[in-house]
Design brief:
- By secondary structure, this protein is mostly beta strands.
- It is built from five helices and 43 strands.
- The chain has a four-stranded mixed beta sheet.
- A hairpin with a 4-residue loop joins strand 35 (480-485) and strand 36 (490-493).
- It is extended, with a radius of gyration of 44 Å.
Amino acid sequence: MEISNAVPQNLIYVTAGEGEKIINRLSRVRNTEVEDVVCSYGQGEEIDLSDTRAKAVYSDGSISYKRVEWNQDQIEAINTGIPSTYTVDGTVIRSEYPFPMMSCRADPNIVYYNGIYYFIATDDKNALQYNIYIRGADTIEGLADEQLVPGSDKVDINDHLLWDGESRQIQGDNGQWIENPHQGIHWAPELHVISGRLYCFFAMRPRNDLGRYEPQCYVSRLKENGNPLEASDWEEPIRVQKADGSPLLNEADGITLDMTWFEVDGVPYVCWSQRLFANGENPGLVIAKADPDEPWKLAGEPVRIAENRFSWERDGCNEGPYVIVNEDTVYMVFSANGVGPQYATGIMTAQAGHDLTDPDSWTKSNYPWMHNGVIEGQYGPGHNSFFQDEYGDWYNVYHATSASWGGDRSSTVVPLHFRADGTPVLDMKPDEEIAPANRSVQAVITINETEAVTLIGLKLDPPDKTTYQQGEALDISGMSVTAVYSDGSVKTLEEGMYMVENFSSDEPGKIAVMVSYTEGETKVSADFTVLIKEAEEKPGTGEEPGTGEEPGTGEEPGTGEEPGTGEEPGTGKEPDAGTGPDTDEYPENRNDGIKGEGDISYERAADTGDNAVPLLMLGTAVLISGGIIICLGKKRYR
């Protein structure tokens, strides 16, 4: 392998597998192929390719599924009623954004929030860095520069001022001019959604009675239902505190800046860059657990986890941390080597499930992952952050300068790719994401002959009422009727779409009520069972059930019958045929002292409080034996 500007000094022999791993990790990852899409539809089914992606394959064996702009005219020309195979042309969508995309904006951050992309960054025009501006757009492209506000050499028409650190005086809520509490530098704002609320983390060095002091970390929260583009919709920034309520650092002790927020395994953390003046140290990275209810307050002790120790990062600091998690590995990017054209970005890694406040949980890369010499015309790429678009694709937004000697920093966006080993590629170029020769792709669509879907059955959930008295009308409240089809689909039928048949409450007994549904020439049915009970007789009618005679007429009940015939007197019915006083013919027995089937109450009317008339000797047999007449009878109450 030839490496430009490298002089070979020695050779190290490695296995083929080790060599392949080294090449895949350290070489540029390039797109090698985009596979055509194969899909099938049933007859008559609508073709929708809007979410259909093409599989892109890369030199290290990694893959990525890319969105495609499909030829809609070809899709609409397909006759889905005829089984056949069709092809539709498509163009793979490639992420390509200009540099500079947001001029004079450094330490960039983008978030997709409530359907809008928001861009926020350090104002780097002429290195003043006093104000914080925010942009909002429906698309990523819409965040780009448009034109400067008339009369301004640094403010774009897309910019909305959130915090003014430039003016000495500002108007208060009452309209009076007051000393600007935010006068001073404002650095590295980041937007984070925490528990459904939008927050902005940034560092500022406000003016106070003692003069200006070095920057410290602050957090501001968007008001309920607030507009992120409106300065008045943001709450007053709160200085970040330790768990005991004290500031991270006293002003005289050092600086804190570049705070970020992230969660791993449901545990929230903050990480920031910190420098102590006493020992002359360069800024290093400090981490602590955080409070999601009050994100400006730590929930644990701060721990230093990184400092500049490798040659590529010795000149300057460790700053700008940001985290992304992929395949249970935590990747924390950071920037180092001075804020200028030699600026570069490294990575620290840890495993999910480990204690991230333990420095031993982290492994620091000994080489930069984003640096000069990769993308032409960009110098000192760094202080990046990640975001997902509306389709779930990941991007990297970062700043760089356009001159090798430095100057104002500007921002741009590139796609974020993950290698086969899960590590992120921070600086993928457009032709590496999708090679020009691979942008054209086809979808091969097969329309399969589909068997006719037929009605095969009816699913029935019975109504709430399934027991009726004679003469009551059917009540189908609560009944659910569903048609079932041969392809497994179902359709809920509303009342009026089906027929209810075979219900009559004229006679007591059980009835199978049929529900039927007809579609074309196909009729399906299902049934449910109801119970019809004999109608209850109202008390106090003065009639003997089944006799039709007035009581007290002077006639002996049952006198027209031969004794010993086995018939109930006056009824014409066989005894023990289910018509005795424990059956539905005598409903009064069930409601007046009967405890169960076959039980008879012998309570008197006077005892129960009923105005009942005792009827004696309903069944009578006369036996003559030794001149003694014995009368046998039953007692009942009406």
